[in-house]
Amino acid sequence: MKLAFSTLGVPGLPLPDVLRLASAHGYHGVELRAHPEEPVHAGLSPAQRADAAALFRAAGVEVLGLAGYARVAAPGEDGPVIEEVRELVGLAHDLGAPFVRVFPGAGAEQSPDEADAVAARRLGTAAEYAADLGVRILLETHDSHRTGAAATRVLGLVGHRQAGALWDVMHTWLGGEQPLDTYAALAPYLGYVQVKDIASTEDTTPLALGAGVLPLAECVEVLARHGWDGWLCWEYEKRWYETAEPLEGLLDAGREHLRRLLNESA
Question: Is residue 214 within 8 Å of residue 198, measured between CB atoms?
Fold first, then answer.
C-alpha cells in the first residue's frame, strides 16, 4: 500500500512546501483539498493547472485525489450539484489525479430511500462524464451515509465503475460498523482509505496516528488479509481544529506507524 496525506492538515500551505513535506517525510502522494482558500481549486486557469501538475511531476509525488465538497444527496436541484462534480472531475483530469471525493450530505427532511435515489441519479450522470476523462468519483463514508453499508446502498443503484467509495475510518467507526463489515461492503467499490486518529466519540480533535481510539490496526489488517494494495491517506483535520498539533512534526512518526501496521499484517 502507498501512503499519502491530505492538505487538510496543512491549510493554505503553498504547493512547493506541500511537496517538500511529502518528499522529505517519505509519502508517495498527496490528497489536495479543493477549496478556494487552498492553492488548488476549480477556479484555476489552464496555465495554473499545468503549472501545478508540473510541480508534482518534478517532485516525483502523485496527486492521489481532490477532496471536493459536493453533496450528492442534498435536497435541491440536480444541475448545480452535477456541475460542481463535473468541475472537480475536470480539475482532477488536468492535474493527473485519478480520484475526486464527494460527500453524501442528505438532509434530515429526506427519507433514506429518497436520499439514496437522489445521490445515485447525480452520481450516475457525473460518472458518464468522469469516464471520458479517466477519473473516478468516490463517495466518502461521511455524514448521512457514514457506514460502508449506507454508502453501498447508493453505489449499488449507480452501477457505474467510475463511481466508487472512499473509506473514512473515523466515520465508519462512529457509525458502529466493524472494519471487516466495512471492507466487505466497500470492497467492490473501494478507491482508497482515509486514516486518522481521535481521542473519543466526544472529542474528535485529530491526534497522531496510534495515539487515539480508532481501530487502525484492524483496518490495515483487514485490507492486507484481502490483498488490497491501494492508498492509505492520512486526513489530519488541522483546518477544523486550530489548536491541534501541527502536522509537519507528526509526519515521520505517522509514516512509521503505518509501515509498522503494514509489516505486522504481512
Answer: yes
Candidates 124, 64, 132, 153; CA nearest to 100 is 64
Report residue 97 as a C-alpha cell.
Answer: 489525479
DSSP 8-class letter at 145: B
Nearest by Cα to 221 from 211, 213, 232: 232
Cα gap 224→207, rounded to integer Å: 24
Can you point out the beta strands (E) in 86-217? 99-103, 136-140, 163-168, 190-195
Distances (CA, A) of 126 to 5, 27, 123: 26, 30, 5
**pTM attached to this predicted model:** 0.98
Q: For residue range 61-71, what is the model confidence (pLDDT) as tens digits?
A: 999 999 999 99
Closest CA to 3 of 55, 62, 57, 60: 62
Cα separation values, 182 from 134, 193, 233, Å: 26, 11, 17
Query: Smallest Cα–Cα separation from 193: which of 156, 234, 224?
Result: 234
Give the pLDDT confidence score for residue 266 in this predicted structure. 82
pLDDT band at 109 (very low <50, low <70, confident <90, very high): very high
* Residues paired with residue 166 on neighbouring β-strands, in sequence order: 140, 192
Provide the 3-class DSSP secondary structure of residue 166. Answer: strand
**Separation in Å, CA 143 to CA 52, 64, 169, 189, 253:** 31, 22, 13, 19, 29
pLDDT of residue 223: 98
Q: Which residues contact 47 (CB under 8 A, 6 or more apart)?
A: none
The Cα-based distances of 81 to 78, 94, 103, 119, 132 in angstroms read: 6, 20, 11, 10, 19
Which SS3 state, helix, strand or coil, does residue 138 take? strand
